[in-house]
């Protein structure tokens, strides 16, 4: 792996971490409304897998969706502006935290009905197959999504029609406050894939390099005509499900244990121990991120709220 | 002009649009090899092949969602639900995604998908297979909902539905498939959201759509023999709803009866009556009447089922109450 690539992944992961921390503060100040779901702890999954895509590949996910926007390269300012409900937001302030999208970057957004975007991903892939391209769709979802009908119907259709979808289960161990083994008859997400003709592979979702390698392999398999693929990323969210989560369902010891495997720490140690980068280089990247976040906050804060007229725009394409 | 059935008109519209636009394709249960449960797509599989005529598993959630996703990514899917009763399973995909993505993401994406669904009662299919739930779908901004009453409108509205960049639910009343009517050879569309006067009259305005429109027309014919001149307005689209011709007619007759096959509560009649009093209060000469399905789950036994459904006698009785 090239140094520049590894440093870029480090930068993206730190950017997501700081962005989410800043969102948490802005939420406490009442500047972000509604629900807010943070990606802290899971950064390696979005960064490593999205790095493996080719230009035409698509990305779609559920409501924990800020990281995917940043990883596809959406500008930090408009993403944050969306969370503040501003007119300059990626969705013009109409979507909010759970409905970010950046279609120019093939990011079809966050969807807030659990599992509801999985058939959309299947349809995006159907369109690529229909058009005869070799593009694929990376469809992210949590462990909780694998118990809803949408998931099963979509995997089955993708299997029957050989659609170019990479199903990426982000198993962060809990669907809201319900542990996987209390909600799923099988504890491993990959055990659901064979029913739909997919093998499935478990990946250490805290190791960005492992995530990248597994995703690259899976996308290649799709492009080689081997049909849809399934990856289970084993990961953990360090914070609650959303803001205001009482966190009664897991112990401090458990959280601490996972925090020792912080994906940013893992990459940082790798870069330093293998003498790939110096501490100064990493600190420079950290500073750059801080500056980017501050500029994004300024941009978002200074942006206007949407005008009243915007209320009635875009209900239909053709009125 | 050739007289063809509604089934043929819908089939012709699909075939012509598929020939005109490579991005149009069909997906649904039994649409391919079987030829469509109501034979609308008979011959399509042989003519267009499996790429453009896709048999799906019995999976309404993914039919609704995948058709929407394919539309977001540049295609124009026509997704068929075997009956509208099964579209309840796809309600989330239709209402939360097809109808919302354009607005919710600030105009970045569009979902030009058509959902086709036969519906309606009167065929002894029992409570779960006989719904006329059109208003449920028409409740939500973002989705367009149309339901034709004639072969001409069916063909023109389906073409408009396929060509518009918005998601459309196209509801076909199954008892109308055999209805014959004049349809021109040349290409035409019937615009979505435009009501149409189907019969002119002076004494009372009958408002209907789909099967309800046909019942209203039959009632108007019988009333004419009794010297009552009824004007009949076809809504054709439930969303957007074009009240223009309805209001204009009401300003002439001062009386209205709304005929719909769905339930009366929260129905099309409720909406049209409310709008008439808002938009033409000064012309109100009598209570606005509603003729609708009785509020029971439709039973299987034939006479019992027919007793719950609308018919010309009930329309005529309603008219006589306000004349």
Question: What does this entry look like structurally?
Answer:
- The complex is a heterodimer of chains A (319) and B (323).
- In chain A, 44% of the residues lie in helices and 11% in strands.
- Chain A has a single domain (3-304), classed as Rossmann fold (3-Layer(aba) Sandwich).
- Chain A is α/β, with parallel strands linked by helices.
- Chain A is globular and about 50 Å long.
- Chain A has eleven helices and eight strands.
- The longest helix of chain A has 26 residues, at 3-28.
- Chain A has helices at residues 3-28, 43-50, 66-71, 76-83, 117-131, 149-161, 180-183, 208-223, 252-260, 263-273, 279-302; strands at residues 58-61, 107-110, 137-142, 165-171, 174-175, 178-179, 201-204, 229-234.
- In chain A, the strands form two sheets. Chain A has a six-stranded parallel β-sheet, with helices on both faces. Chain A has a two-stranded antiparallel ribbon with strand order 5-6.
- The termini of chain A are far apart.
- The model of chain A has no long low-confidence stretch (mean pLDDT 97).
- With 323 residues, chain B is an alpha/beta fold.
- Chain B folds into two domains: 2-183, Rossmann fold; 196-322, Rossmann fold (3-Layer(aba) Sandwich), CATH 3.40.50.
- Chain B contains twelve helices and 14 strands.
- Chain B has helices spanning 6-20, 44-48, 60-72, 91-98, 101-104, 134-138, 151-163, 210-225, 244-253, 268-279, 302-308, 312-322; strands at 2-5, 24-28, 53-55, 76-80, 114-119, 144-146, 168-173, 180-183, 196-199, 204-208, 230-234, 237-239, 256-263, 289-293.
- In chain B, the strands form three sheets. Chain B has a seven-stranded mixed β-sheet with strand order 3-2-4-5-7-6-12, sandwiched between helices. In chain B, strands 9-11-10-13-14 form a five-stranded mixed β-sheet, sandwiched between helices. Chain B has a two-stranded antiparallel sheet with strand order 1-8.
- In chain B, helix 2 (44-48) links the parallel strand 2 and strand 3.
- In chain B, helix 1 runs parallel beside helix 7 (151-163), helix 3 runs parallel beside helix 4 (91-98) and helix 8 (210-225) packs across helix 12.
- Chain B is globular, with a radius of gyration of 19 Å.
- Chain B starts with a strand and ends with a helix.
- The model of chain B has no long low-confidence stretch (mean pLDDT 98).
- Classes of the chains: A alpha/beta (319), B alpha/beta (323).
- Chain A binds chain B through residues 58, 89-95, 99, 101-104, 108-109, 111, 113, 116-128, 130-131, 149-150, 153-154, 156-157, 160-161, 313-319, and chain B through 25, 51, 54, 56-57, 59, 61-62, 64-75, 77, 92-93, 96-97, 101-110, 112, 141-142, 144, 164-166, 240.
């Amino acid at each position: 792996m090239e140094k520049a690539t590894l440093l870029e992944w480090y930068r993206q992961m730190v950017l997501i971490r700081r962005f989410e921390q800043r969102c948490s503060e802005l939420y406490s100040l009442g500047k972000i409304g509604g629900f807010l779901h943070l990606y802290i702890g899971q950064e390696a999954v979005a960064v490593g897998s999205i790095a493996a895509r080719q230009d035409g590949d698509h990305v779609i996910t559920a409501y924990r969706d800020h990281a995917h926007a940043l990883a596809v390269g959406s500008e930090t300012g408009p993403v944050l502006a969306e969370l503040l409900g501003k007119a300059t937001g990626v969705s013009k302030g109409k979507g909010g935290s759970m409905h970010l999208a950046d279609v120019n970057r093939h990011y079809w957004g966050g969807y807030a009905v659990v599992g509801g975007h999985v058939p959309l991903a299947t349809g995006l892939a159907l369109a690529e197959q229909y058009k005869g391209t070799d593009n694929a769709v990376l469809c992210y979802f949590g462990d909780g999504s694998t118990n809803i009908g949408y998931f099963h119907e979509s995997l089955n259709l993708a299997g029957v029609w050989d659609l170019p979808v990479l199903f990426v289960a982000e198993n962060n161990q809990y669907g809201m406050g319900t542990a996987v083994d209390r909600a799923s008859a099988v504890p491993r997400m990959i055990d659901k894939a064979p029913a739909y003709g997919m093998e499935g592979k478990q990946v250490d979702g805290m190791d960005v390099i492992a995530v990248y390698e597994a995703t690259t392999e899976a996308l290649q398999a799709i492009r080689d005509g081997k049909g849809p693929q399934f990856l289970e990323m084993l990961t953990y969210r360090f914070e609650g499900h959303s803001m205001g989560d009482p966190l009664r369902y897991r112990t401090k010891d458990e959280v601490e244990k996972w925090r020792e495997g912080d994906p940013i720490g893992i990459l940082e140690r790798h870069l330093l121990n293998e003498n790939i980068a110096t501490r100064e280089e990493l600190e420079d990247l950290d500073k750059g991120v801080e500056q980017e976040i501050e500029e994004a906050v300024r941009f978002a804060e200074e942006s206007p709220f949407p005008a009243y007229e915007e209320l009635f725009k875009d209900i239909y394409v053709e009125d | 002009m050739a007289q063809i059935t509604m089934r043929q008109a819908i089939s012709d519209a699909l075939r012509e649009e598929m020939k005109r636009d490579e991005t149009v394709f069909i997906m649904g249960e039994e649409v391919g090899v079987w030829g469509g449960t109501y034979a609308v797509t008979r011959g399509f599989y042989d003519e267009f092949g499996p790429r453009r005529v896709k048999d799906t598993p019995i999976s309404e959630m993914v039919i609704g969602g995948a058709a929407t996703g394919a539309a977001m990514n540049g295609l124009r899917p026509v997704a068929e639900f075997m009956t509208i009763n099964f579209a309840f399973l796809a309600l989330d995909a239709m209402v939360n995604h097809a109808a919302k993505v354009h607005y919710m993401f600030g105009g970045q994406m569009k979902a030009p998908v058509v959902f086709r669904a036969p519906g309606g009662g009167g065929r002894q299919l029992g409570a779960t297979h006989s719904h006329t739930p059109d208003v449920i779908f028409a409740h939500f901004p973002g989705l367009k909902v149309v339901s034709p009453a004639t072969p001409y409108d069916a063909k023109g509205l389906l073409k408009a539905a396929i060509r518009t960049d918005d998601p459309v639910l196209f509801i076909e009343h199954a008892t109308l498939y055999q209805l014959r009517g004049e349809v021109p050879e040349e290409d035409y569309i019937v615009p979505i959201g435009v009501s149409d006067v189907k019969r002119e009259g002076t004494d009372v305005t009958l408002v209907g759509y789909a099967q309800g429109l046909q019942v209203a027309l039959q009632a108007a014919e019988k009333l004419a023999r009794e010297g009552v001149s009824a004007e009949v307005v076809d809504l054709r689209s439930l969303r957007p709803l074009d009240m223009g011709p309805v209001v204009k007619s009401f300003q002439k007759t001062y009386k209205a009866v709304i005929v719909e096959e769905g339930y009366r509560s929260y129905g099309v009649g409720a909406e049209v009556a409310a709008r008439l009093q808002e938009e033409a209060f000064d012309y109100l000469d009598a209570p606005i009447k509603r003729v609708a399905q009785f509020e029971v789950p439709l039973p299987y036994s034939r006479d019992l089922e027919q007793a719950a459904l609308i018919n010309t006698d009930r329309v005529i009785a309603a008219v006589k109450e306000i004349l």
